[in-house]
Specification:
The protein is 7% helix and 29% strand. By secondary structure, it is mainly β. It has a single domain (8-115), classed as TonB-dependent receptor, plug domain (Ferric Hydroxamate Uptake Protein, Chain A, domain 1), CATH 2.170.130.10. The strands form 2 sheets. Strands 1-7-8-5-6 form a 5-stranded mixed sheet.
Length: 137
């Protein structure tokens, strides 16, 4: 990314843990000119907008203008993009157009999600949270 001039916002594993990122919508306020929201009519459908370019539809035949890539695999429709994520290594938001690097359907930009690579070392990660139900004044 340092050799090619482009507008990129990148988050590493430590930053994502510090921000308590549960899904891509959690990053909407941390990336300028980007709205990572769901459609609202159906759960899990993305309504991603970068620099004003986005599609607000749950129809699978309509091509999105913001491409989402998970581990190098292009997610061709908006369904199943806004789900809870875990074990993330990093997320990059590239403001568009990114057609030269990623092909079609990235007029607005691209969201690149990298999950943690599997290893042969035995290990476990756990998180614990406690909810009291009490509201503080």
């Amino acid at each position: 990314m340092q050799k090619v001039p482009m507008a990129v916002t990148a988050f590493g594993e430590a930053q994502l843990d510090a921000k308590f990122v549960q899904n891509l919508q959690s990053l909407s306020y941390d990336v300028p000119n980007v709205q990572l929201e769901d459609v609202g009519t159906a759960p899990g459908y993305a309504n991603f907008t970068i620099r004003g370019l986005g599609i607000n539809s749950t129809i699978p035949s309509i091509d999105p203008t913001v491409g989402v890539f998970t581990d190098g695999i292009y997610l061709g429709i908006n369904a199943g993009v806004v789900l809870d994520n875990f074990d993330l290594e990093g997320i990059e938001v590239l403001r568009g157009p990114q057609g030269l690097l990623f092909g079609r359907n990235v007029t607005g930009g691209a969201v690149v999600v990298r999950t943690t690579r599997p290893s042969f070392d035995f290990g476990a990660k756990a998180k614990l949270s406690i909810e009291t139900g009490l509201k503080r004044p």
